[in-house]
Write a structure and sequence with these properties.
CATH superfamily of the largest domain: Impact, N-terminal domain
CATH class of the largest domain: Alpha Beta
CATH architecture of the largest domain: 2-Layer Sandwich
Strand content: 35-45%
Radius of gyration: 24 Å
Shape: rod-shaped
Order of helices and strands: EEEHEEHEHEHEEHEE
Helix content: 25-40%
Largest sheet: 6 strands, antiparallel
């Protein structure tokens, strides 16, 4: 099934490199405004830190990052590369650095910022968000198992069952499979099952 990966929850991390502390903070967001608000929140919370470097990734094509005073290319971009490699999107990550008095160099900084971002992602975990098309229909009890089998064969899920004179079913089909289910139901029921395709959702 096609879809995209997003953080399953908030993530935090902490690592120390030559006495500098790097604190990672990761959250799921669905817009640039949400990302900006979270960055501002972290900057206020850790206002005494030397740097609050950040990146965000929303969808496949909206990406931003900032080194917040660190050498160019040593913080925000390495963090963003972590999420590109892991193919996780709709997130914002801020890594706060408390300077420990020892210069790390560009390579050391890149490793530390990327490491804090990756640990925050591991702490958050991730899940797949896919596009589903709801299909509603009623079927007679003798055809219930066959209906369930048709849904499963197309990679779908039964979202809801209501038992009455007939069984009312809400099936969730992967994008592009709803029409196939309708055709299958119509065929094996001899046209007695009438299915309604609803607007696709993401979950």
């Amino acid at each position: 099934m096609t879809g995209f990966r997003v953080p399953a929850g908030p993530g935090e991390s902490e690592l120390t490199e030559k006495r500098s502390r790097f604190l990672g903070h990761l959250r799921r967001v669905d817009s640039g405004e949400e990302a900006k608000a979270f960055i501002l929140q972290i900057k206020k919370q850790y206002h005494d830190a030397r740097h609050n470097c950040w990146c965000w990734r929303i969808g496949d094509d909206l990406e931003r990052f900032s080194d917040d005073g660190e050498p160019q290319g040593s913080a925000g971009k390495p963090m963003l590369e972590v999420f590109r490699r892991e193919d996780v999107t709709n997130l914002v990550c801020v890594v706060t650095r408390y300077f420990g008095g020892v210069l790390l160099g560009t390579g050391g900084l890149s490793r530390a910022y990327a490491g804090a971002a990756k640990e925050a992602l591991l702490d958050a975990g991730f899940r797949l968000v896919a596009e589903w098309t709801p299909v509603r229909f009623s079927c007679p009890y003798p055809l219930l198992e066959r209906c369930k089998g048709s849904v499963a064969a197309l990679g779908g899920e039964i979202g809801q069952l209501e038992y009455g004179e007939d069984v009312r079913i809400l099936a969730l089909l992967p994008a592009g499979e709803a029409e196939k289910l309708v055709s299958s139901l119509t065929e094996f029921s001899g046209g007695s099952i009438h299915a309604e395709i609803e607007e696709s959702i993401r979950k």
